[in-house]
Design goal:
Blueprint: H1 3-26, H2 28-62, H3 68-85, H4 89-99, H5 101-121, H6 133-136
Length: 137
């Protein structure tokens, strides 16, 4: 089976199971309230972290550096906000892990390390010759 199709089937099943288990422990109203609160707080915090990432990216550009981590971090924050908006406890947990800067750095540590390795060795140069067109006139 395709991985995406498998995720589309498994994620709602896990969320329904968690709704039933947590709802039986704390009650239906508290479960719904908890889902709404995590969505609102998560989106608010994702917005806050997004602005911090934007400021950091601009400062990297001012230093004439490529803001690799900031680009990945911005995409991760957008995905985390989407996960927090979706109702569910498993998606909220993954979204919170992506929003927290320390865990986000752990997720992207290997990607950034691999990019820096390839950046050292893959210098592309274009060779060519030039002529002064005014001398020919």
């Amino acid at each position: 089976m395709n991985t995406v199709l498998l995720l589309i089937i498994i994620i709602p099943l896990v969320e329904i199971y968690l709704f039933i288990k947590i709802g039986s422990q704390i009650g239906a109203f508290n479960t719904i309230s908890l889902i709404l609160i995590t969505a609102l707080l998560g989106v608010w915090y994702a917005r806050y972290e997004g602005f911090n990432t934007l400021k950091s990216g601009i400062s990297q550009l001012m230093k004439n550096e490529i803001p690799i981590y900031e680009i990945l971090s911005g995409a991760a924050l957008a995905f985390a906000a989407l996960l927090l908006i979706l109702p569910g406890f498993a998606t909220d947990l993954i979204g919170l892990l992506l929003i927290i800067p320390i865990t986000r750095k752990l997720f992207f540590k290997n990607i950034q390390k691999n990019y820096k390795k390839s950046e050292k060795f893959n210098k592309n140069y274009i060779e060519g010759e030039s002529e002064d067109l005014e001398d020919k006139k």
